[in-house]
Amino acid sequence: MDSETSLNLPVIDFNYLELEGKNPKWEEVKSQVFKALEEFGCFEALFDKVPLDLRKSLFVLLKETFDLPLETKQRNVYENPFFGYIGKGPRSPLYESIGIDDSLVLENVQSLENNLWPQGYPTFSKVIRDFSEQLSELDQTVRKMVLESLGVEKYLDEHMNSSTYMLRVMKYSAPQTEDSKMGVIQHTDAGITTILYQINEVEGLEIETKDGNWITYQPSPHSFVVFVGDCLHAWTNGRLYNAFHKVMMRGNEARYSAALFARPKEGYKIKAPEELVDEEHPPQYKPFDFVKFVNYFHTQEAQKHRIPLKAYCGL
Ligand SMILES: O=C(O)CCC(=O)C(=O)O
Ligand SMILES: [Fe+2]
């Protein structure tokens, strides 16, 4: 691939898409989605359904949230690596985040709200919930298109019902001159899909192509980045690619982002449907439980491997 001319993510327009029934626009977008996810493992989605007001409110709220005292944020620390507050660490000294599990359910967001603001802050919960719901719509559209493209839409209900969402909001502090610029080290996302929104227009996200070039994503208030995670890569028996990505900070402004992660529910075994396994496509992974895989993913042993999923259950 010519590294000078092709270093842009595919851009796919989800505006004016009719969701009901088969129509030419749906088919056109669907084929763009599948091609992008096969080749790049991700794409930039134009999706104006999320109102700009909501995005602006989210920015204000996240600044307020991360400006709270560390002790307040740390009231939300749990053993489970998905949940709650993750503070700056030796491997990612600029990064902090808060994970809100099942953030489409208002009560879940409210319990975080009450922890952060004991006097209450209903706008926080409403904005987080509404934003999560809008992103989940885009996610469901993409996953429906993937299953249709593979001719396995009969599994759509099972596929959707066996997954759950978490919204993670993130802040990357601006590096001081002598700090490393590393925001998040290169990784693939472990779950099914990720819909990422860069809240302020501070660059930083970089995505690796199959041939080892890095694309710098140019943030825009109108676009979201959709990623295939390890579980969808495995479920499609390797047909969809799971791209490495990382965050490198530059400049002197903090960066805020939010990501909706779809992941399999605990106890659900990820196994490629039989339709996707044949002589031409031999099975690539043993069936696995996501939670057990993530526990492995966080071990030092897993970190030695470029592709932890292959080390864990590759065939
Ligand atoms: O903040 C970003 O742009 C990327 C974050 C990320 O890759 C992740 O949380 O998995
Ligand atoms: Fe990621």
Write the layout of secondary structure elements.
Layout: E1 11-13, H1 24-39, E2 42-46, H2 52-66, H3 70-73, E3 84-86, E4 95-101, H4 106-116, H5 122-149, H6 156-161, E5 163-172, E6 182-187, E7 193-198, E8 205-208, E9 214-216, E10 223-228, H7 230-235, E11 245-248, E12 255-264, E13 269-270, E14 288-289, H8 290-297, H9 300-303, H10 308-313
Parallel strand pairs: 1-2
Antiparallel strand pairs: 2-10, 3-4, 4-5, 5-12, 6-11, 7-10, 7-12, 8-9, 8-11, 13-14
Helix pairs in contact: 1-5, 2-5, 4-5
Question: What would your notes on this structure say?
Answer:
This protein has 315 residues and is of the alpha+beta class. The chain has one domain (11-274): B-lactam Antibiotic, Isopenicillin N Synthase, Chain (Jelly Rolls). It is 33% helix and 23% strand. The chain is built from ten helices and 14 strands. The strands form three sheets. Strands 1-2-10-7-12-5-4-3 form an eight-stranded mixed beta sheet. The protein has a four-stranded antiparallel beta sheet with strand order 6-11-8-9, with no helix packed on it. A hairpin with a 5-residue loop joins strand 8 (205-208) and strand 9 (214-216). Helix 2 packs across helix 5 and helix 4 (106-116) packs across helix 5. It is globular, with a radius of gyration of 19 Å. It starts with 10 loop residues before the first strand and ends with a helix. The structure holds 2-oxoglutaric acid and fe (ii) ion. Fe (ii) ion is lined by residues 187, 189, 194, 245.
